[in-house]
Amino acid sequence: MKHPRKIIIDTDPGQDDAVAILLALASPELQVLGLTAVAGNVPLALTQINARKVCELAGRTEIPVFAGCDAPLRRKLVTAEYVHGKTGLDGIPLPDPTMPLQPAHAVDVLIDTLRREPPGSVTLCPLGPLTNIATAFTRAPDIVPRVAEIVLMGGGCFEGGNVTPAAEFNIYVDPEAADIVFRSGVPLVVMPLDVTHKALTSRDWVEGMRSLGTPVGQAVASWTDFFERFDTAKYGSQGAPLHDPTVIAYLLDPALFTGRHINVEIETGSELTLGMTVADWWRVTDRTPNALFMGGVDREGFYRLLTERLGRL
Ligand code: RIB
Ligand code: CA
Q1: How many CA atoms lie within 13 A of 66 on its CB side?
Q2: Whole-number pLDDT of residue 232
Q3: What is the pLDDT of residues 118-160, one digit of tens each?
Q4: Whole-angstrom Cα distance, residue 23 to residue 42?
Q5: In the predicted structure, residue 1 carries a pLDDT above the cut 70
Q6: Architecture of domain 5-310 in CATH?
Q7: Average pLDDT in the 264-282 region?
Q8: How far apart are alpha carbons 132 and 154 in whole angstroms?
Q9: Which residue in 124, 166, 286, 307 is a FRET match for 5, CA 20 to 30 A apart?
Q10: Which residues fall within 8 angstroms of residue 59, CB to CB, at 6 or more apart?
Q11: 122: closest CA among 36, 15, 41?
């Protein structure tokens, strides 16, 4: 087997982040160098705890977890307890973590890791606001060309936004950070709401998770039950969009997704459309393409992959 792909998951768990982390930890094709927690769905004090809870649930206490930025670059933190609950990981109660939080700051870890590892060997997988990544790029511009690729969940095009009519949460929370990342020149793969809203869970799938009879299966089913209630009420949809696992699924099987290499820029000026990913899907401008922006997903294939991999934990 070829060498596993080295990744760092930057995350704000969040039930969907948690499923993404489990998917990565269940997949030998990936070497998770560490989890870097960021403020987003809930404050940093909780996202770093939740990241450790998930590692312990997977029996992977050797995975280093680091705390990063506790607020956006220039704005007040906006959180999403209304979606994820006050712990950020509401559903089945999980024990407080016993594995330690690493002492180093996540931004220093991003910089040191990218300087240490061979250029082009590390992929960054941001699942939350892009504050840690943007701070690392600003503090150490030399690491930017060393990043293999950034595969992130964020933004929206035809699907619009989920926190304002124009903006998706991860981008909206720190639009200045997103602007730095989208202008960085690092190869970008973007999983927007246009994809994740097509990746809804089904009752059968959730019950299938529960019937695994494992702590992971129980947790994933309970998280989805909790997480689903918000989207069902809001969209009238059956099922919850498992946003963040699409990032890891792309690394494991890119053929599950379809998209276009287009220009995507971030609104940082207008209060009305702050955090909008302005995606030139129809290529009506001469702006340089900077992102593989996804639009479609093989939903059945995605859930087949999730079931098979989570069943291994
Ligand atoms: O808008 C969905 C995104 O915001 C997901 O990553 C979810 O976990 C939250 O971070
Ligand atoms: Ca997230």
Answers
A1: 22
A2: 82
A3: 999 999 999 999 999 999 999 999 999 999 999 999 999 999 9
A4: 22
A5: no
A6: Alpha-Beta Complex (3.90)
A7: 98
A8: 15
A9: 307
A10: 313
A11: 36
Q: Which residues have their alpha-adjacent CB atom under 5 A from ion ligand 2?
A: 12, 14, 17, 127-128, 244
pTM recorded for the entire structure: 0.98
- Which of 26, 16, 21 minimizes the C-alpha distance to 312? 26
Ligand 1 atom with minimal separation from the 170 CA: 4
Residue % of the chain over a pLDDT of 90 = 94
Residue to mutate, 16, 54, 234, ligand 1, most ligand atoms under 8 Å from C-beta: 16
- Residue 181 Cα to ligand 1 middle (Å): 17
The token duo for 215 is: 């702590």
- Is position 197 annotated as part of the catalytic site? no
Annotate 98-145 with three-state secondary structure: CCCCCCCEHHHHHHHHHHHCCCCCEEEEECCCCHHHHHHHHHCHHHHH
Q: Does the beta carbon of 128 lie inside 6 Å of ligand 1?
A: yes
In the predicted model, what is the mean pLDDT of residues 204-220?
Answer: 97
Bridge pairing between strands 277-279 and 264-266: antiparallel
Domain ranges of the chain: 5-310
Structural contact between residues 172 and 161, judged by C-beta atoms closer than 8 angstroms: yes
Give 262's strand partners: 291
Residue 104 CA to ligand 1 center (angstroms) comes to 25
